[in-house]
Protein: Peptidase S55 domain-containing protein
Amino acid sequence: MHTAGPDPSNRWLACLLALFAFFAELCLIPGTLNAQQPEILPVSQVNPGMQGYAYTIFAGDQIEKFDLEVLGVLENFLGPKQSIILVQLKGPKVEHTGVVAGMSGSPVYLEGKLAGALSLKLGVFTKEPIAGVTPIQDVLHPPPSSIAEVPMPQFGVASETFASAGLPSGSALEPIETPLVFSGFEPATLQLFAKQIQGYGLVAAQGGTTAPSPQDAQLVAGDMAGMVLVQGDASINSACTVTAVEGDRVFLCGHPFLNLGDVQLPMARSHVVMTLSSDLASTKIVNVAGSIGTITSDHLTAVTGRLGPPPAMIPLDLSLRASNSEKKLHFEIVDHPKLT
Structure:
């Protein structure tokens, strides 16, 4: 008796179903299809003369690479077991702009491994762009001393002499300024409060807003994001560079925004329009896009957040009456005891 073999079409169908099930299972495992996380280079393995590179955005959403060289490691610079890597930036763009406000958080790679985040700049006029790098261990895992909440006043770094690096006597490192982006404000208003804002390590910058997009939350290292303080008919947002993204966790800035400690503040995507070069202080001009999650901590060595729904804000409605006209404005402001 002749027995019919399996139908070849059924075998193909079974293979296709198995393949579909395999990929469906992969999609259910977070990060399986994502790019592999880079290797980490501990600060203990960093030596003077090492060549590396960093990523940041100068215009548009194009992440660009620039070179750098390690000048040395400043042990215990920020505190016990909190060192800083001193580097010299190289390349036509960074040699033209110097260290740019908004560049803090730019991921730094040495020997192809993630070594840290740009966070500090030399606070004197120098021919070469010199920067400080927060070691990556302190960005991803802030030291215990930086976990405790500290008061809001300006974060300062004590003056230091870097004779071994060939820098001028009295040179000091200070945090790279964070652009505080104002949209819907008169230029005269910004000028009126610019000095007070600068006292907190921020630079008042006029910017715009763009419509939210589903792509806003698709962050990678080198993109820009920040805190939402006010949104609506006028907005105020900070803007830093993203150092790393691990699952839904985002690490940026490489230094504090206002040293607020553990927080629940909205996080928004930022898009760079251009980089304004200046001998005094170069800065990124940005548009702020949609909210993409929650800033969860603001500590000495990093600002961190989580992608997802943003926290609630406080609604504020204003009615302005003048002669025969009336203007109604709607805002939402951040809900935090030290800010509101």
